[in-house]
Design goal:
This protein has 619 residues and is an alpha+beta fold. Helix content is 40%, strand content 15%. α9 (323-337) packs across α25 (601-613) and α23 packs antiparallel against α24. The two termini are 36 Å apart.
Length: 619
């Protein structure tokens, strides 16, 4: 991974001020790439690059130009199938300047234009400047693992790996996108192309943006596709397990491609343990595994982490996380993830990546994606229960209308009853926001492609939505990329492999949830590979202390952020409602039943920190 940024003035002129700004934009991303840095300044384009050396250590510097320097590339990420692509290109006469994996992008673009992007298997965001066409192309990988943000300021277009880089350009607004805030409160997080900043957009997963003098066009090159019920072709269980295993092993092997040592996160759950096990079966072996432990035994998975370390015969590094660590790292976590958050566990992710960095490791494998692909959450069971019941609905007309607008069907329940939660949000919001609530309400703004939901099995409906609104901009973004790159660590996700996912989408639902056993096929594949105790344990959600614990332990910074005067002055939330929640949450012994009850104060706390660290104006 790296940090990239740029200033594009189509048919304009990059000036001395722009040169100074591109250096500042690059340098604020130095945590993403502390090993090297560079800039390129051309008549209408300036690019900045800071590098985390992983592949091609000696000569992988960017930006990279083609032979006649008419096309330039900066890329953040990895192309896992680059060796095959490079061999093919070399056989056709292309000359490579570096040993970097990402240089294949440049040569493929020369041959195919943007059609080449379908050849890539990796995690990437890149910018291609084509000087002959006077255009800039910004792309993001299939699952949104790597970030890419962009905005326009008069006749100037800007892009960067992180929003904080864009905010350094003179004249960029820090106004809050209130629909994005409403998404955050209602969903796992904000969904691309929205960000918390009104005039700054995120490239959507599986999309690329083409910018020229006249306009911006947004093009989708890939999407998840689950077959409709009448399209499904079923084969026997042995076939699916064998092929799934082959693709997963191949994905793990590809993601071990590096010129530096590799580690793995091991939470103690099936997914991360299986990735670590498969990674350790081939050379090079894992350097070590990393885990978080909690003083509160309710959150701790220590017994399973130690069991896996013993099974792998690999050194384990662990960190005992406490409530104090939330206070220590919370503000830094918000600065790096650039969004309000709904749980404090981003701080645990940040501490975990610091542990990796302190042990001299730059790359870690992780198990994200398995729950969404193999029906790993309890909600997948509930979907099947609901589908087995009578079609008679107990939902109100308002709730039915909301579900139809969001998902195209009244029968799909996602996380909460939105008509009821709307009442809570109206209590949370200030009068000025409530005056325009219908306009900013997230349900009136498109979230997903409903054509990909019609006629699908309930498990596949949820999987598609989870991969769109939970994975891309939350689990592998603010919780993943941002917390890892805060400590110059790259995360890799074997379950989020293009070939593997395209196969898994065709596995019959009953091999994912079989007799209400979640991850049936994955568990069966794991037998003989993992300890039985890990395979058979109940799903345990990764979580961390919330706002009740912070208030009950008299964390001064939390009380300051939630003070009546601060909330009222900010103008976004209702100070009277916040006061009532504070009174309830700080009662000795009060606990929230997560995930069935929401920590209403946590997004308000994190939004308050965001306002401070990014100097966001009051409403």
């Amino acid at each position: 991974m790296c940090g990239i940024c740029g200033i594009f003035k189509p048919n304009g002129q990059v000036n001395a001020v722009d040169r100074e700004v591109i250096i500042k934009m690059r340098d604020i991303l130095k945590h993403r790439g502390p090993d090297d840095k560079n800039i390129l300044v051309l008549p209408e384009m300036a690019m900045g690059f800071c590098r985390l050396k992983i592949i091609g250590l000696e000569n992988g510097k960017q930006p990279i130009g083609n032979e006649n320097e008419t096309i330039w590339l900066v890329c953040n990420g990895e192309i896992f199938n680059y060796r095959k692509l490079k061999d093919d290109l070399c056989s056709r006469g292309h000359i490579f300047q570096t040993d970097s994996d990402v240089e294949v992008i440049l040569h493929l673009y020369e041959e195919k234009g943007m059609e080449f992007i379908n050849d890539l298997n990796g995690q990437f965001s890149f910018a291609i400047y084509d000087s002959l066409q006077h255009r800039l192309i910004l792309a993001r990988d299939h699952f949104g693992i790597t970030p890419m943000y962009y905005c326009k300021n008069k006749n100037t277009y800007l892009f960067a790996s992180e929003i904080k880089s864009l905010l350094l350009y003179p004249g960029i607004s820090r106004e809050v996108d209130l629909t994005a805030l409403d998404q955050l409160l209602s969903l796992p997080g904000i969904v691309s192309p929205r960000t918390i900043f009104k005039n700054i957009a995120s490239v959507e997963p599986g999309h690329f943006i083409v910018i020229d003098e006249n306009h911006i066009s947004n093009k989708q090159y890939w999407d998840i596709y689950y077959p409709e019920k009448d399209e499904a072709i079923y084969r026997d269980e042995a076939y699916y397990m064998e092929r799934m295993g082959e693709l997963l092993e191949q994905s793990v092997k590809l993601r071990k491609e590096a010129d530096v040592p590799i580690g793995a996160y091991v939470s103690g759950g099936l997914d991360s343990c299986l990735v670590a096990k498969l990674a350790n079966q081939t050379e090079p072996a894992l350097n070590r595994i990393f885990s978080i432990r909690f003083e509160d035994l309710f959150f701790s998975e220590e017994i399973y982490q130690q069991m896996m370390a013993k099974d792998l015969k690999v050194a384990e590094a662990s960190y005992m996380f406490s409530l104090k660590d939330v206070s220590t790292y919370f503000e830094k976590a918000i600065w790096h993830c650039e969004t309000p958050i709904k749980e404090s566990y981003n701080t645990t992710s940040m501490v975990l990546s610091k542990l990796v960095h302190d042990n001299g490791i730059k790359v870690v494998l992780s198990g994200e994606g398995a729950d969404e692909l193999f029906a790993g959450y309890p909600s997948y069971k509930f979907d099947v229960f609901r589908s087995m019941r009578s079609n008679v609905s107990s939902n109100t007309d308002v709730e039915i209308d909301i579900r139809k607008e969001l998902w195209g069907t009244e029968h799909f329940f996602y996380e909460k009853n939105y008509s009821e939660f709307e009442k809570t949000k109206r209590l949370m919001y200030s009068n000025s926001i409530n005056e325009n609530f219908d306009e900013i309400n997230f349900i009136h703004h498109k979230l997903v492609n409903q054509d990909r939901l019609r006629g699908r099995h309930p498990l596949h409906i949820r999987s598609y939505i989870d991969l769109k609104v939970r994975i891309a901009d939350h689990l592998v973004s603010d919780h993943g990329d941002r917390m890892m790159m805060a400590n110059s660590v790259e995360g890799r996700y074997p379950f989020l492999d293009k070939e593997l996912v395209e196969f898994v989408t065709n596995i019959p639902p009953e091999l994912k949830l079989n007799q209400f056993q979640e991850k049936y096929l994955l568990k069966k594949f794991s037998k003989g590979r993992l300890p039985t105790e890990i395979i058979n344990r109940e799903k345990f959600g990764f979580s961390a202390p919330g706002s009740p614990q912070l208030l009950q332990n008299s964390q001064t910074w939390v009380r300051d952020i939630l003070s009546y005067d601060t909330i009222k002055k900010g103008g976004y939330f209702n100070p009277d409602y916040v006061e009532s929640l504070k009174t309830e949450y700080e009662k000795k012994g009060f606990v929230l039943n997560i995930p069935y009850e929401e920590d209403i104060l946590m997004p308000i706390i994190s939004f308050g920190i965001l306002k401070e660290v990014f100097n966001i104006p009051n409403l």
